[in-house]
Amino acid sequence: MKLNIAILALSLGASSAFASDAARQTAAQTIPLKDGGILYMFKDGKMAKEDRYGRAQYLRSGDTLQTVDGKQITASSNEVARLNYLLKKGHGDK
User: Fold this and answer.
1) The pLDDT of residue 76 is above 80
2) How many domains does the chain have?
């Protein structure tokens, strides 16, 4: 039983590691945030935020986000639909 739980835990961790591959490949830069989320900076200069649970999160223009290293970034746009699509890309039924 413990082995089954360990296998399940490892497989869930592995699947979440691949969940944002399309988003990370599309983004010009990803910045880890203090709250556990990730800020995606796309090549066209627009931004999107992933929360600590791996979901696209609404981002208001002008919001201040704190990075892991203590820097502050002001949000200039909200690409929640774009990020949501990228996070789910390759994980749905065909």
Assistant:
1) yes
2) 1
